[in-house]
Amino acid sequence: MTPSSQAFPRAARALFIPLLVVATFVAGFGLGALTQPTSAQVNPNTRMPADAEEAFAPFWETYNLIEKTYLDPVERAALVDGAIRGMVESLDDPFSSYVEPEFNALDTDLSGSITGIGVVIELNEDLDQVTIVNILEGTPAEAAGLLEGDIFLEVDGEDVSGFNTDQLATRVRGQEGTTVNLKMLRGEKEVEFSIVRARINIPNIESEVLEGDIAYVKLNQFTSEARRQLNTAISDLQIENKRALIIDLRGNPGGLLSSAVQVTSMLVPGEDVVLYEQFGDGTEQVFNADGTALDINIPIVVLVDERSASASELAVGAWQDYDLVTVIGTTTFGKGVVQTQRDLINGGGLRLTIARWLSPNRTSIHELGITPDIVVEWSAEERRANPDADPQLQRAIDFLNNGE
After folding, report:
1. pLDDT value, residue 43
2. Given the DSSP bridges, would you call strands 205-210 and 273-279 parallel, antiparallel or unpaired?
3. Which of 205, 220, 254, 259 would staple 229 via disulfide (CB 3.0–4.6 Å)?
4. CA 85 – CA 319 distance, rounded (Å)
5. What is the CATH number of domain 113-201?
């Protein structure tokens, strides 16, 4: 085990997408902003390193000048928050972020239940604004009339322009039964909403038998229970009696690294490599299949789109490298880095990118995404206008029925 992997235990790491963030913001998931806190300590020392003293001299000079000469009183905690936020923002990494202490007490596990409004978000880097990319069915957001493509302008009167997904999520989420007031930009029109937060149970697995005796399973996120749920769904579908299988990962923003390895192992035989993880110090960790591959001897199609991110891409990348599936849809989001999250001694939360991952063929998908074997477009506008059309699913059925 490398020093880096010791510092960040496998089970504690997550493939987030706070952007897309990617990774979920059931008023809190950052599309991929699927994260799990960890108490892992890289270096618990809170003292300034000796070799950094000279470099930080201007910082302390500025701090002292503010303390002694600034016109108005300033809370010391506010200066600390600002300094930390500035350091993290200087990384120019959309997946690394700082959350102030008052907003850090959030339910960030992947248990399948969360309190919020029920939307999946991403950061539009061109606009530097957070956008809704998916509305979960049966949630307060759907009932209120929020739409995919809406842009957050204000939360409870606070201007959220320039916020990242973590910062926005902490403002929108809150206690069940409380109200959050939103101002959204829809096209060129500003629209306001008052939405009562609710406890949202996220259905993680959907399954059915489609025309042509094709089994269909949709996985919504890579939770700690995802592999068990997939095993149960596939068993209930009696896959051995079906002609083919469709695994739908569209809109899946990612989740836990451990879950990604388990789900990928569902199809990768033996202990073959499922991913390589490279750290900033040059060390590398190899993740192998866990030897629990299912005996599936029928054609498999995997559906993806631009909202499929992080752990979803990890699984699809490995399956595609080993030629185990046919991938249909649109190019995936392109998040090939891993984050960890920890609490700081001031009560704030720090999320940092710690590694990049490569597919078994040592391919990086970061900022590139995975290109499907068969490209079928289905834009957000088309999904909103006619959600039942689903040309990607129909193309998968046609491919499995006709072989082309």
Report:
1. 53
2. unpaired
3. 205
4. 38
5. 2.30.42.10
Q: Where are the domains of the chain?
A: 1-41+51-107+203-404, 113-201
pLDDT for the residue 342: 87
Burial 356-391 (b: 16+ CB within 10 A, else e): bbbbbeeebbeeebbebeeebebebeebeeeeeebe
Q: How far apart are CA 2 and CA 283, in angstroms?
A: 7
CATH number for 1-41+51-107+203-404: choose from 2.30.29.30, 3.90.226.10, 3.30.420.40, 3.40.50.300. Answer: 3.90.226.10
Handedness of CA 319, 324, 325, 326 (dihedral sign): positive
Instruction: Give me the pLDDT at residue 17, please.
Output: 35
Q: How much of the chain, in percent, has pLDDT values that exceed 90?
A: 61
How far is it, in rounded angstroms, from Cα 89 to Cα 355? Answer: 18
C-alpha–C-alpha distance, residues 245 and 169, integer Å:
36
